[in-house]
C-alpha cells in the first residue's frame, strides 16, 4: 500500500507541475540509488520516505473484535494506521529553479490537503483518504536528516501523510453462544 501512496502522489504532483511548467516532461521521480550512496535526480523533484509512524490515537475500544455487516463477530488483529513522512527534494542546476519547484510543491499540497476518491478517482481502492500536513523541523533535526542521508542540503519540504491503514485480511470467526451451548451439552450428555 505504501508504494500505491507514493505512486499516486508522484503522479498527481507530476501532473500539476506539467500544467504549470513550460516543459512537458515528467519532473517527479522516486529517489535514485547510486552504488551505496543516496543520490537525487538532477533537474527533478524526488520523493523519499524518511519515516513511518504508527498512529495510536484512533484505536478501537476492542481492537481484536469486529462485527461484520451481517452481525457475525470475528477475531481480527487490530488495524495499523500509519503516517508516512515523505521528503520532497527539488534539485535543479539553477538554484532559482529549485526554489520555484519547491514553491509549486507547497502550493499544490496547500490546495490539495485531503485526497479522497471523490476528488481524485485515481486514488487506490486500498486507500480511503490521504491528508497532507507540512512538517517544520528545527534546524538540528534537519541537519540530522541530511547527515543521515549523507547528502548536502537541497531545497525540500517534509510532509506527514496521514493515514495509510493496514487491516487483517483473514479474520477468524468466533464461536457463537449457541455453538458453545451445543458443545457443552454434547460433552456432558
From TrEMBL:
Top-rank taxon, per record: Bacteria
Lineage: Bacteria, Pseudomonadati, Bacteroidota, Cytophagia, Cytophagales
Ranges where the Pvc16 N-terminal domain occurs: 5-173
InterPro entries in alphabetical order: Pvc16_N (IPR025351)
Name assigned to this protein: DUF4255 domain-containing protein
Amino acid at each position: 500500500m505504501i508504494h500505491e501512496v507514493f505512486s499516486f502522489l508522484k503522479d498527481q504532483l507530476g501532473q500539476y507541475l506539467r500544467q504549470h511548467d513550460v516543459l512537458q516532461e515528467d519532473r517527479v521521480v522516486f529517489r535514485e540509488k547510486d552504488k551505496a550512496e543516496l543520490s537525487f535526480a538532477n533537474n527533478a523533484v524526488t520523493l523519499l520516505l524518511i519515516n513511518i509512524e504508527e498512529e495510536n490515537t484512533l484505536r478501537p475500544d476492542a481492537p481484536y473484535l469486529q462485527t461484520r455487516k451481517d452481525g457475525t463477530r470475528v477475531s481480527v488483529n487490530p488495524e495499523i494506521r500509519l503516517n508516512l513522512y515523505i521528503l520532497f527534494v527539488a534539485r535543479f542546476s539553477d538554484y532559482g529553479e529549485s526554489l520555484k519547484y519547491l514553491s509549486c510543491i507547497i502550493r499544490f499540497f496547500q490546495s490539495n490537503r485531503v485526497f479522497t476518491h471523490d476528488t481524485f478517482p485515481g486514488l487506490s481502492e486500498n486507500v480511503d483518504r490521504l491528508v497532507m500536513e507540512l512538517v517544520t523541523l528545527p534546524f538540528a533535526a534537519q541537519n540530522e536528516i541530511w547527515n543521515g542521508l549523507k547528502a548536502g542540503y537541497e531545497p525540500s519540504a517534509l510532509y506527514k501523510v496521514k493515514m495509510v491503514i493496514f487491516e487483517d485480511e483473514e479474520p477468524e470467526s468466533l464461536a457463537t453462544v449457541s455453538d458453545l451451548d451445543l458443545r457443552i451439552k454434547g460433552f456432558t450428555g
